[in-house]
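Researcher: Structure for this, please.
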Amino acid sequence: MTDIFEGGNKLPVTEEFYSLQGEGYNTGKAAYFIRIGGCDICCSWCDSKITWNSGLQSLTDIKDIIDKARAVPAKAVVVTGGEPLMYNLDPLCEGLKKHSIKTFIETSGSHPISGTWDWICLSPKKQTPPLNSIYSMAHELKVVIFDEDDFDRAEENSRLVNKKCKLYLQPEWSRYRQNILVIVEYIKAHPYWSISLQAHKFMRIP
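Model: Predicted structure, token format:
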């Protein structure tokens, strides 16, 4: 998607909030979250469908985003979506880095990387696979398990990431009860994987 928002100096923000990271390797750590609108993948089980249409979101100047991030005690920002890499994130990251704020992103990897990231969580989607270039950059691979076919997809992706990349399987929330024991048994049999639970949903926090 062509970046039309002043070269990344404005972004279609769905919501911003200060909370704890709820998934994957960084679970439990405080961070300022920026959820960017717009997605060209649109998974049927997505729990953030409000983000799909960027035209429904308010365009926010990145200076305002950075000021809000600076105001919280934790010097960490998580950029998520939607698919945040639909936009140029260089200006946002440059502004955050000037204030020594760590940058984290969750992405499907379906668009080229922009921005400077301390942590890249790659969460691949089967209908739009990641670009080859992102696999070597990912610090964390998080595969959402909706049905048993997703285990094969997880293994395919795990063979493409770098050797230091953390590997996580995460039950899709609406099928948690059906899938959790299957995932547990799979990880017991394949212990190079770890489980990711959406801890923020259990805690009922944003």
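Researcher: Any notable elements?
Model: Residues 176-189 form the longest helix (14 residues). The domain at 6-203 is CATH 3.20.20.70 (TIM Barrel).
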